[in-house]
Amino acid sequence: MKKLIAAASLCVASFSVQAAITVPKYDVNAGKQIAETVCAACHGLTGESIVPAQPNLGGQNVKYLYKQLVNFKAGYRKNGIMQSQVANLSQQDLANVAGYYASQQPWGVGYGNPATSQEASKLFLGGDKKRGVIACAGCHGPDAKGNIFAAFPRLGGQHSEYISTQLKLFRAAGRDDDISSDDQKRVNDAAKEGEKGMMQTVASRLSDRDIRILSEYISAVH
């Protein structure tokens, strides 16, 4: 419990930033129409991707989805495909799509790796004090369902390949590379100016093996 409290304290600094995200009133049916033509090829019409490199979106936190779409459009999160896909969408369109996918049934569960699940579980739930690794559960919850209020995403059952890639990008500061802005509230990994973002800080202490076993474990959490 003490480890979870300590991990949760790291999240507090970004709560005010994340909680301030306001999603415009959205139209699920309008979002579905956009998803059919723009998003479904990669993420599936119901938000369950058949490509491990592309994230599942169905049932995800609407604040998180909206924030990511806004950040892609603004360039605070960089991905050539995503930036081109949202380039012609309005803020209302982004809200509609986020609302649509959030309204879908959560995705299924992966299989994980039994050989490393116990070790990964300890890291996910309790971190590693000796190495300064913060527990993932402090922000994403012990059941990996995320935090709706703080816009922290649901992770449980997500593709392990996708999770691994994102952790490595955070570790390399690639999720918001070359970002310098006075408006830190809009940076994808929220932080004070001149400091590492929360996820960059956490990921910087993870080894390749940590990332692998955590990704496999998270993909099987339900």
Question: How does this structure look, described?
Answer:
This protein is mostly helical and 222 residues long. It has 2 domains: 2-18 and 109-220, Cytochrome Bc1 Complex, Chain D, domain 2 (Orthogonal Bundle); 22-102, Cytochrome c-like domain (Cytochrome Bc1 Complex, Chain D, domain 2, Orthogonal Bundle), CATH 1.10.760. It is built from 10 helices and no strands. The radius of gyration is 17 Å and the shape is globular. Pfam families: Cytochrom_C. Residues 26-105, 115-222 form the Cytochrome c domain. It comes from Psychrobacter aestuarii. This is C-type cytochrome.
CATH architecture of the largest domain: Orthogonal Bundle
Determine and state the CATH class of the largest domain. Answer: Mainly Alpha
Characterize the quaternary organization of these chains.
single chain
CATH overall fold name of the largest domain: Cytochrome Bc1 Complex, Chain D, domain 2
Q: In whole angstroms, how far apart are the ends?
A: 20 Å
What's the overall geometry?
A: globular
Please tally the helical runs, counting DSSP H or I stretches of 4 or more residues.
Answer: 10
Largest beta sheet, briefly?
A: none
Average pLDDT score: 87
Q: What structural class is derived from the secondary structure elements?
A: mainly alpha
- Element pattern in H and E: HHHHHHHHHH
CATH superfamily of the largest domain: Cytochrome c-like domain
Low-confidence stretches: 177-186
Number of domains: 2
Helix content: 40-55%
Total strand segments: 0
As a whole number of angstroms, the C-alpha radius of gyration is 17 Å
Strand-residue proportion: under 5%
